Every structure is written in structure tokens, then in C-alpha cells.
């Protein structure tokens, strides 16, 4: 078979394949590299023209490849490699092209190699220009400048000669903001702004409400009438029930049996039955002639609980006129069926937990803040209250889909038998169950107002909206982290010679963001939650101290065990730095915080609940320490040095101010934009309540960022961050009034929101700010004059002014 570069049809096939599968691009070039060693022959020139043709073909898709990489890449390193692969040589091409650049036997070969490097330099301008003109998604933990630095470090390994390295590095120092370079770029789809995502989520919630109402209308007339009559009795006075209602209550077991038999795939059935059970057995004035276990027995008889609650398979044994469940109906069905079981468990826990083992509940639990998981967690805690030790009898707690890796569940039988143990969980099971990215997101968005779990015999919120939330529930996760640390500490005491295992566990506890989540727990408004977080950090700090203290060796006591200790220490170099950060955190939380400690020495005692009775971290300080912990494993990050210098300079962080805001915002470093963007993003992601606003006010955050918005040094990334900060701030009415009174925010908006706005997303952010201000002022009629001004600015901002949209050119899909 002929080579691809000798046949035009095969050439086009290769080009189309590489454009559709860009991940194969560097590997295919590596495949051609052995044939690229310089020689003055027609086949070599044909091959180099083929490579030119490949680079020219993919050049118009570079922006699309960049957007795709932003969507799928998890780290900045992977993202930089994916972007730079299309603008530099592949790894195996470096040596052949280096020799071609130095090939003196033929000037034509040398000129072709020079022409190739010059074209690659032009290709690199495309992603750098796009990064300069566009704002990275808010979910990214890095800025465009940081990404450019990573790309610059990466291409150093792919440049064959130092002379060309200088030419490529000049591109990173140039101000690449010419949108004409991006006109030919092909982008398959436009980006979606954050307000559109919120709107789509609201539509989904509305669909859930409509699904419940539709399922009620699909029930037969007699059952629907019974539900309506009983619902009026539940909301009214239970002492004055009519004879018809009393007869209906007496017939309720038969009605429930009929519903389970013929309409068990209707979520509305369990929603109404759970309300009725709560009404019947929590009113002392009512005399009920039957026990709640009669409902549970009917449920076990006609409903396949293993299939409904613990799998995604639809129900069987339905009547011919029953509706076909959709995915939305199945989610609602599981939600309200668990609520129905919970109401029975409140009244008769022995009946429920005799037939539903705790492992079955854990298998359906995902440890999130969703309404379904909170219902399951309530059932688990009720089981622990009814039968102490039922949950803690398992040395290592496992939940969710990972439970199927350790236990075998019999879903063929309608009876929920106790699962069979297949593989005993161990201390490393925690890191297989938890997703590190989800745990880090949960740490950044920690539910501040989540109360420490208490069992109360009160009816669950009767909202028809099923809340879906991917944030982890601290009431469960903090418990789990504590038990795993406790079990690991006990194992270390029993086997002190096993030093490799502690190093692995301590590092995984840090890498999997478990420590970051515990630090986020210090920002909770629940005192019990903060105490649990302190205990976890104290246990980890104690284990880390024992690990670090065993790493000092002398020639007198150096033996094989010490060699193992030193070897394990090399695998966890961040250990001492983490201990240093935790000590700084403890000092900051001590009585009086950093303002009392001043420049004093560090305390020798470790972070532990028995000696630390400090207060609460604000969200901005919790996120600061979380970001510091993440930076410790990235010494190549530009922010590593300024943040580490900040920690070394003082024994504690003053919790009255934003950490190092003024020094980073007004940085004199050559790469000051990176430091300014980092501290501004910290403020954007951390403004959760008025307490964070007061901390920012002490540091004059709003004063400085509003003034810097119009400065020549303010790039688009900084402006987007300022607008997102104002969006988060204006969600709180008290902060809105403070911004109007102390910062003249309406005057600032009248200047910038009514000017020519080149970005569509920028206009939407301005409109979102104005809408939030309008909603906050609408609470009082006395604010009408100010509302007129807000409406005027809003109308002026909504009008699209004639301006050249320089920053949206890169996102316009090409007709080709």
C-alpha cells in the first residue's frame, strides 16, 4: 500500500480523520518522524509538504480544539499540552527537524525546515490571541495568564533549537489582541453564559412540578377525590372532622392497597400517603383503628422495593392503563417512596428496619445535599437511634455504587435480604468512594447554614420541587472522615513498624481533598459542625506530626527501618508545609485571631479541639486556606512564592481582613495581572453572606476594584471578575443598600452599563446586577425613586449600541 503523502485520496482521508479526532494528531506525527531525517530527495520534500498540509488543515480548528480542551481537561497541565500540541512539533519530530535546520548539504532542505518553524510560530498566535480576548469559564481554578505560562513552559521541550525558542518566547511578551487573526476559525457551537444555565435549571424544576400535577390528574376519579378530601382535612382543624372524612380514614388501608396494586408507579400516590400517615399518627385527638404496619405490609406485597428504590429499572406488574414512567417520574418515584417509608419509620421504626437492612439504604445514598439523600440520611440516623451500633458495626463505612464492589445484593427477591460480603473494605476504600473533584467543589461551596443532624418527628417539607444538589452533605461526610481517621490511628498504634502505609494514607487524605473539606467545615454556622471539623484536622495534624518527627536520621541510629522512613518521606514532600499551614490556621482561629498574636512566635501545641476553642472562619478565609493547600503541590505555580512568603512572614492570618489583598492587588511584579486576578477570584468565589462583605469592606475591596475597572491595565478577564463579584454581592438586599450608600453603585453602573459593550456576556452580567438591585429595592415602597433610576439604567443597557464586537469574533461559527 502506498504512503498517505503519495496519494491525494489517502491524504484527504488522514486530514479529515485528524480534524475529527485531534487526540491522534501528535501520535500520527510521531509515526511519520522516522522518515523526516533530512535528505535531498523527492520523497522527503513530498513528506514535508504533506506535514505542511496537515498543519494548514487543522489551523482553522485550533480555537474549537481549545474550547473542547477547556471542557474536558481536569488540570492546567493537561490543558496546556492539549492546546500546544497543534502549534509545535511532536516529541519524535524534534530530532529530525533539528538536523534539518543544520543540514548544510542542501539549502532547500534547510529552508523547508525554517519555513515549517515559521509557520508553527504563526499557529501559536491563534490560541494565545483567543486566550487574550476571551474569559475562561468560572469553573476553572486558573486564569488565562497562568495557562499561557504553562504553555510557554511546555513548548520549551518541543523547540529543536535555542534560536527558535527565543522567537517563540517573544509571542508570550507581545500584546496579542487582534481579532482579525481569528476570523477564519471554525467553532461548532457558541458558549453558554451562566445566566442561561440557571434559566435551564429553572425549566427543569418547573418540569418536575408539572410532572406531579399531571400524575395526579392521571389517577382515577374516585382515588383523586379521596386524596383531595383528605388533603383539606390535613390542612384544616382535625377536631371537627365530618363523618365522610372519618369513613374515608377508616377505608384508607384499602385505598392504599389498591394504589400499590395498580398505580405504584405514580409518585403522587406516595406523596399524599406520607402526608396522611403523618396526620393520622401525630394527632392525639384522632383514634386510628389500624397500625401503620398495615401500609408497610401492603407495600411489600405489591411493590418490588429492590427494583424501585435501589435500581433504575421501571416497575413491573402494572395494570394495562397505567402510564409508562419516564426518567423524571422514576426520580420522583424514588424520592416520594423514601419519604413514605420515612413517615412509617417515625411511627413504627421496628417494622421498617426489620425488613430494610442499613446496607440497602447506604447503597441508594450518594451523600449529597439533594432532598432524596437527606431523606435517606434521616432514615439511617433513625436506624442508628433505634438500634445503636447498626451503622458503626462496620469498621469502614461504604456507600453508593461502591457498595456493590464489596457486597452482593439480591435484587431478584422482593425481600430485602442482608447482602453477602464479597470483599472486606479497608482504610483505602475511602479514596475509592469519594470523587476528589466533587469533594473540592463541595468544599468551595460548603453549605454554611446546614445544621448538625437532629432527629425530629416532624413532617418533611411538603414541597413539590425535588431538589437536586451535587454538594456533599457535611453531616455524613465529616462523620465518615472522622471514623476513617480514627480507624487508621488505631491501626498505626497496633503496628508501629509499618511506616509506608501512613505516608500513603496521609498523602491520599490530602490529595483527595479530604483535608480541604475539613477546613471548609470551619466556616459552618453550626457549632457542632465546626467542632467535628476541628477534631478531624487535629487528628490529621497529630498523625502528620508523628510522621514528620520520624524523618530525622543520624549516623548512629540509621538502619533499614530509617531508610524506609526516608523513602516514604520522599513520596510526601508537602507534609511539613501542610503542617505549617495548619498551625497558621490554628493560630488564626485562636482567641483574638491574628490581631492579638501580632508578630509573636508560633504556638507549640497542635490544632486540636481539646485546646482550641476558637470561632468561625468566614467563607473567604476558608477558601483562602483551601487554595493555599492546593498550591502546595504546585511549586511551579506563580502564586506559590507570594502566598508562601505571606505565610512565612507572620504566625497567623488576621481574620478581620481579606488575606494579602492590598499586596496582591497592587503587586509590583512583572506578572501582576496573575496575582491581581487570583485575589479577585478569591473574593468572587467567597462572597456568600454579609459576613464576607464586612471582611471585604475592611480591606476596601469594592473601593479598589470599582476604581480599577476603567484603568488601562484592566483586561477583559479582570472586568468579568468584577462583574461576577457584583452579581454575587447584589443577591443580598443588605449588601445592595450598603453598595448604594457607601459606593454609589448606581452612578458607577450608569457610567459603565450604558457605555458601548462589546461582549454579549458582559451585557448579561450588567443586566443581572441591575435585576438583583431592582429585586432588593422592591421590598419597600419607599425606594420607588431609586427604582426609577435603576429601571432607566436597565433600559439603557438593554439597548444594543452600534459597536464592533471584537471579542465575540472567535466564537462566531463559520458557515463552512
Describe what you observe in this structure.
The protein is mainly alpha-helical. Helices cover 60% and strands 0% of the residues. Helix 25 (514-520) runs antiparallel to helix 30 (619-631) and helix 37 (733-743) packs across helix 39 (760-777). The model is unreliable at 189-210, 312-328, 458-466, 496-500, 551-565, 593-613 and 802-816 (pLDDT under 50).
Quick structural summary:
The chain is an all-alpha fold. The protein is 60% helix and 0% strand.
What's the arrangement of secondary structure elements?
Blueprint: H1 8-20, H2 25-32, H3 42-59, H4 62-72, H5 76-84, H6 94-101, H7 107-133, H8 144-155, H9 162-173, H10 194-217, H11 221-235, H12 243-250, H13 252-262, H14 267-281, H15 293-302, H16 305-310, H17 327-347, H18 349-355, H19 358-363, H20 371-386, E1 407-408, E2 420-421, H21 429-433, H22 436-444, H23 474-494, H24 500-511, H25 514-520, H26 527-549, H27 560-570, H28 575-589, H29 594-597, H30 619-631, H31 640-649, H32 661-665, H33 672-686, H34 690-698, H35 701-708, H36 716-729, H37 733-743, H38 745-752, H39 760-777, H40 784-798
Antiparallel strand pairs: 1-2
Amino acid at each position: 500500500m502506498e504512503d498517505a503523502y503519495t496519494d491525494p485520496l489517502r491524504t484527504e482521508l488522514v486530514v479529515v480523520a485528524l480534524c475529527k479526532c485531534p487526540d491522534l494528531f501528535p501520535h500520527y506525527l510521531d509515526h511519520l518522524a522516522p522518515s523526516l531525517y533530512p535528505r535531498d530527495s523527492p520523497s522527503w520534500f513530498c513528506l514535508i509538504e504533506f506535514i505542511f498540509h496537515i498543519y494548514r488543515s487543522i489551523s482553522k480548528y485550533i480555537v474549537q480544539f481549545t474550547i473542547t480542551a477547556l471542557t474536558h481537561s481536569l488540570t492546567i497541565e493537561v490543558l496546556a499540552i492539549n492546546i500546544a500540541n497543534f502549534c509545535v512539533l511532536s516529541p519524535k519530530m524534534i530530532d529530525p527537524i533539528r538536523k534539518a535546520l543544520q543540514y548544510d548539504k542542501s539549502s532547500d532542505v534547510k529552508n523547508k525546515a525554517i519555513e515549517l518553524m515559521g509557520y508553527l510560530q504563526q499557529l501559536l498566535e491563534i490560541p494565545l490571541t483567543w486566550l487574550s480576548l476571551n474569559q475562561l469559564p468560572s469553573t476553572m481554578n486558573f486564569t488565562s495568564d497562568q495557562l499561557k505560562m504553562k504553555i510557554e513552559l511546555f513548548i520549551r521541550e518541543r523547540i529543536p533549537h535555542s534560536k527558535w525558542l527565543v522567537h517563540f518566547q517573544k509571542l508570550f511578551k507581545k500584546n496579542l489582541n487582534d481579532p482579525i487573526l481569528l476570523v477564519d476559525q471554525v467553532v461548532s457551537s457558541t458558549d453558554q453564559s451562566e445566566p442561561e444555565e440557571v434559566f435551564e435549571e429553572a425549566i427543569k424544576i418547573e418540569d418536575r412540578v408539572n410532572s406531579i400535577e399531571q400524575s395526579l390528574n392521571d389517577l382515577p376519579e374516585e382515588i383523586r377525590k379521596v386524596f383531595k378530601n383528605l388533603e383539606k382535612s390535613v390542612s384544616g382543624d382535625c377536631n371537627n372532622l365530618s363523618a365522610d372524612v372519618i369513613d374515608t380514614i377508616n377505608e384508607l388501608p384499602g385505598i392504599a392497597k389498591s394504589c400499590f396494586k395498580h398505580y405504584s408507579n405514580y409518585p403522587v400516590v406516595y406523596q399524599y400517603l406520607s402526608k396522611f400517615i403523618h396526620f393520622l399518627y401525630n394527632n392525639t385527638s384522632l383514634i386510628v383503628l389500624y397500625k401503620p404496619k398495615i401500609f408497610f405490609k401492603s407495600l411489600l406485597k405489591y411493590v418490588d422495593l429492590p427494583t424501585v428504590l435501589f435500581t433504575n429499572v421501571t416497575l413491573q406488574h402494572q395494570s394495562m392503563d397505567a402510564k409508562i414512567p419516564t426518567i423524571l417520574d422514576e426520580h420522583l418515584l424514588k424520592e416520594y417512596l423514601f419519604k413514605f417509608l420515612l413517615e412509617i419509620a417515625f411511627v413504627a421504626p421496628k417494622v421498617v428496619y426489620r425488613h430494610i437492612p442499613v446496607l440497602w439504604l447506604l447503597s441508594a445514598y450518594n451523600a449529597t445535599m439533594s432532598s432524596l439523600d437527606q431523606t435517606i440520611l434521616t432514615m439511617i440516623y433513625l436506624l442508628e437511634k433505634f438500634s445503636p451500633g447498626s451503622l458503626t458495626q462496620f469498621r469502614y463505612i461504604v456507600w453508593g455504587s461502591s457498595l456493590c464492589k464489596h457486597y452482593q445484593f439480591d435484587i431478584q427477591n422482593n425481600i430485602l435480604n442482608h447482602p453477602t460480603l464479597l470483599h472486606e473494605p479497608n482504610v483505602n476504600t475511602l479514596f475509592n468512594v469519594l470523587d476528589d473533584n466533587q469533594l473540592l467543589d463541595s468544599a468551595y461551596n460548603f453549605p454554611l447554614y446546614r445544621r448538625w443532624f437532629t432527629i425530629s418527628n416532624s413532617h418533611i417539607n411538603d414541597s413539590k420541587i425535588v431538589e437536586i444538589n451535587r454538594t456533599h452533605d457535611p453531616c455524613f461526610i465529616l462523620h465518615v472522615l472522622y471514623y476513617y481517621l480514627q480507624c487508621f490511628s488505631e491501626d498505626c498504634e497496633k503496628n508501629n513498624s509499618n511506616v509506608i502505609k501512613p505516608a500513603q494514607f496521609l498523602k491520599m487524605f490530602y490529595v483527595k481533598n479530604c483535608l480541604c473539606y475539613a477546613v471548609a467545615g470551619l466556616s459552618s454556622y453550626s457549632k457542632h459542625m465546626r467542632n467535628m471539623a476541628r477534631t478531624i484536622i487535629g487528628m490529621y495534624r497529630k498523625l502528620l506530626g508523628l510522621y514528620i518527627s520520624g524523618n530525622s536520621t543520624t549516623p548512629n541510629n540509621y538502619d533499614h527501618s530509617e531508610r524506609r522512613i526516608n523513602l516514604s518521606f520522599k513520596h510526601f514532600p508537602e507534609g511539613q508545609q501542610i503542617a505549617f499551614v495548619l498551625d497558621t490556621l490554628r493560630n488564626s482561629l485562636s482567641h483574638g485571631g491574628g490581631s492579638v498574636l501580632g508578630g509573636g512566635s508560633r504556638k507549640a501545641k497542635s490544632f486540636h479541639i481539646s485546646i482550641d476553642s476558637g470561632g468561625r472562619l468566614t467563607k473567604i478565609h476558608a477558601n483562602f486556606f483551601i487554595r493555599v493547600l492546593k498550591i502546595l503541590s504546585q511549586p511551579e505555580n506563580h502564586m506559590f512564592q507570594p502566598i508562601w512568603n505571606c505565610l512565612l512572614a507572620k504566625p497567623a492570618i488576621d481574620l478581620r481582613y481579606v488575606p494579602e489583598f492590598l499586596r496582591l492587588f497592587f503587586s509590583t511584579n512583572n506578572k501582576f495581572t496573575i496575582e491581581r486576578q487570583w485575589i479577585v477570584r478569591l473574593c468572587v468565589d467567597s462572597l456568600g453572606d454579609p459576613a464576607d462583605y464586612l471582611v471585604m469592606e475592611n480591606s476596601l475591596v469594592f473601593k479598589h476594584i470599582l476604581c480599577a475597572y476603567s484603568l488601562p491595565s484592566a483586561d477583559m478577564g479582570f472586568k468579568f471578575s468584577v462583574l461576577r463579584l457584583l452579581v454575587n454581592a447584589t443577591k443580598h438586599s443588605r449588601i445592595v443598600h450598603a453598595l448604594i450608600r457607601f459606593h454609589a453603585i448606581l452612578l458607577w453602573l450608569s457610567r459603565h452599563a450604558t457605555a458601548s459593550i462589546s461582549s454579549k456576556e458582559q451585557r448579561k452580567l450588567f443586566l443581572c446586577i441591575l435585576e438583583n438591585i431592582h429585586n432588593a429595592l422592591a421590598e419597600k415602597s419607599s425606594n420607588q425613586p431609586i427604582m426609577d433610576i435603576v429601571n432607566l439604567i436597565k433600559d439603557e443597557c438593554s439597548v444594543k449600541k452600534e459597536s464592533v464586537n471584537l471579542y465575540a469574533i472567535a466564537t462566531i461559527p463559520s458557515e463552512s
